[in-house]
Design goal:
alpha+beta, three-stranded mixed sheet, 5 helices
Length: 134
């Protein structure tokens, strides 16, 4: 009924990407918004993750930004890969290779752990994406 507290941050990130000529798609690994993720059964969450995997297989993408500790852990579990620690906002961009494409790990955009200091980090990430995938 009303947008999540994370929505303005996601909109800001989408705008940053668009200003560099990049399009974006947003989804959670469980394919449910964070607000409703806690209401999902384990079975529903597993089905959502399978949908996420299908999206990655069939929707063309060039780079991905995974934000937050929980999402990073879920991504690693879903694909059987070790994920680096979520970086601090003042660090250099942290990335892993996944299916010959780049996945950036970012501090969270979701309250309560969200900090406005994440934006310089994301500016650096968006700059790398814009300079390497166009």
């Amino acid at each position: 009924t009303k947008p999540s507290k994370t929505r303005p941050n996601l909109a800001r990130l989408s705008k940053m990407l668009a200003e560099r000529g990049l399009t974006s798609m947003q989804t959670n690994i469980s394919c449910a918004s964070a607000r409703y993720d806690a209401d999902l059964s384990d079975e529903d969450r597993a089905h959502g993750t399978e949908i996420f995997k299908a999206v990655l297989e069939h929707v063309p993408w060039r780079a991905m930004i995974v934000y937050g500790v929980g999402a990073s852990k879920q991504f690693g579990r879903a694909f059987g890969m070790a994920m680096p620690q979520v970086p601090s906002p003042d660090s250099a961009p942290v990335q892993v290779s996944f299916r010959e494409r780049t996945v950036f790990i970012s501090p969270t955009l979701a309250p309560p752990r969200y900090r406005t200091s994440v934006w310089p980090y994301l500016e650096r990430v968006v700059g790398i994406i814009a300079s390497t995938v166009l």
